[in-house]
């Protein structure tokens, strides 16, 4: 196809991959920590290494329902005498006699003196006379004390995100309280006299404020405390007060709109007066205008006003910053190759993230098609999509059947 330049593209536009590297250099992880109980720890980030103070498992126990005995006693080829039982929480307390065995359940302690367990399916019982099919080796079906970890062993490292599996491990070692990183706080608001709250009547030239709800939804996907400061009127002092309030109560301040060239509002003026802000022009579509800097001790991110542009720049630029602020490692997005269904029109100049639907055909092959119109104001396209098709900066369109790079939505957008 013939290359056409993007009319919104200039040589000075920064590639988004380069931008995120520069942005990450300018934020630091939260260092404050607090102690929480185990039920409060889900989704939090460990602030220190955590070692176990017990062996795991804490005692020799059976890996299955069956019978416990001395392996050497099987050499005689005689039935063993049943002398007792061991259940989880109710161990056998008698004497482990030679030529004898006990009934044992999964997880129950294997008493000292017995060294092997055979599953009940390979045992014949005749009253108290138990004939056991010899296992292959001594110690069969016994989970030994400390075989998973011994007391003093590090279980989880500082910086670990505590999920469901980690919660289970922590409970297993009896960790009732944990030191975790303080939750990152994010304040956000919208500006514009044209914005109206949901549930009110629209007047001429007015629209509902949707960006705040999208931002709230994405922030809620992480363990982040968000502070919604609402819609701020186009009044210089009202905007100044909103910025000051946000910076005083949060680690990051996010706004949407008011960062494009030629915007006739007070946002840029107040930012220049109150903070250290740089206005970036990025080679990204939807997107391009983005503001970043600091308001006092808070990080500031100014997103474009168009709804899809706001979501895409949050997803690609702001979320990695929040990840670092939480003390979590950066991870590369998962991508895959899929066959394009239909054509895609594009002008060279910017990296594009086109909303699309990823599916698999009858042969298990990945296929992808755009959702339709890709305008930056068409927020419904995000509800139909489950992925982005990533189009390189120099791409000038694609034909049907082309293999394309697809980035499935992660938990932030899905």
TrEMBL record:
The keyword Magnesium applies. Residues 187-324 form the MoaB/Mog domain. GO terms for molecular function: metal ion binding; molybdopterin molybdotransferase activity. PROSITE patterns: MOCF_BIOSYNTHESIS_2. Its cofactor is Mg(2+). The keyword Transferase applies. One of its GO terms (biological process) is Mo-molybdopterin cofactor biosynthetic process. InterPro entries: MoaB/Mog-like_dom_sf, MoaB/Mog_dom, MoCF_biosynth_CS, MoeA-like, MoeA_C_domain_IV, MoeA_C_domain_IV_sf, MoeA_linker/N, MoeA_linker/N_sf. It holds the Pfam family MoCF_biosynth. Keywords: Magnesium, Metal-binding, Molybdenum, Molybdenum cofactor biosynthesis, Transferase. It catalyses: adenylyl-molybdopterin + molybdate = Mo-molybdopterin + AMP + H(+). Pathway: Cofactor biosynthesis; molybdopterin biosynthesis. GO terms for cellular component: cytosol. Its EC number is 2.10.1.1. Catalyzes the insertion of molybdate into adenylated molybdopterin with the concomitant release of AMP. Belongs to the MoeA family. This is Molybdopterin molybdenumtransferase.
């Amino acid at each position: 196809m013939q290359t056409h330049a993007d009319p919104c593209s200039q040589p000075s536009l920064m590639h988004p991959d380069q931008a995120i590297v520069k942005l990450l250099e300018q934020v630091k992880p939260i260092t404050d920590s607090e102690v929480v109980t185990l039920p409060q720890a889900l989704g939090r980030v460990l602030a220190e290494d955590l070692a176990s103070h017990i062996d795991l498992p804490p005692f020799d126990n059976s890996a299955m329902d069956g019978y416990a005995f001395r392996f050497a006693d099987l050499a005689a080829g005689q039935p063993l005498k049943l002398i007792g039982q061991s259940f989880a929480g109710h161990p056998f307390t008698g004497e482990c006699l030679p030529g004898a065995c006990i009934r044992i359940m999964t997880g129950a302690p294997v008493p000292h003196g017995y060294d092997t367990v055979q599953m009940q399916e390979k045992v014949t019982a005749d009253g108290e006379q138990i004939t056991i099919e010899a296992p292959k080796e001594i110690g069969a079906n016994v989970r030994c004390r400390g075989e998973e970890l011994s007391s003093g062993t590090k279980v989880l490292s500082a910086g670990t995100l505590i999920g469901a599996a980690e919660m289970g491990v922590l409970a297993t070692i009896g960790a009732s309280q944990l030191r975790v990183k303080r939750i990152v706080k994010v304040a956000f608001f919208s500006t514009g006299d044209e914005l109206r709250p949901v549930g009110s009547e629209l007047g001429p030239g007015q629209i509902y404020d949707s960006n705040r709800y999208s931002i709230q939804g994405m922030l809620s996907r992480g363990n982040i405390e968000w502070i919604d400061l609402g819609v701020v009127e186009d009044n210089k002092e009202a905007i100044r007060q909103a910025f000051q309030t946000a910076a005083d109560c949060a680690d990051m301040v996010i706004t949407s709109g008011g960062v494009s060239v030629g915007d006739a509002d007070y946002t840029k003026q107040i930012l220049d007066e109150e903070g250290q802000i740089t206005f970036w022009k990025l080679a990204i579509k939807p997107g391009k205008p983005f503001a970043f800097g600091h308001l006092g001790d808070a990080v500031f991110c100014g997103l474009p006003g168009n709804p899809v542009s706001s979501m895409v720049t949050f997803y690609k630029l702001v979320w990695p910053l929040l990840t670092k602020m939480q003390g979590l490692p950066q991870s590369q997005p998962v991508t895959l190759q899929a066959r394009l269904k239909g054509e895609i029109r594009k002008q060279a100049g910017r990296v594009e993230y086109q909303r699309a639907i990823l599916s698999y055909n009858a042969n298990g092959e990945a296929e992808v098609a755009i959702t339709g119109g890709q305008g930056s104001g068409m927020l419904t396209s995000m509800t139909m999509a489950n992925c982005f098709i990533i189009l390189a900066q120099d791409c000038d369109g694609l034909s049907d059947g082309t293999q394309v790079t697809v980035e499935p939505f992660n938990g932030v957008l899905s």
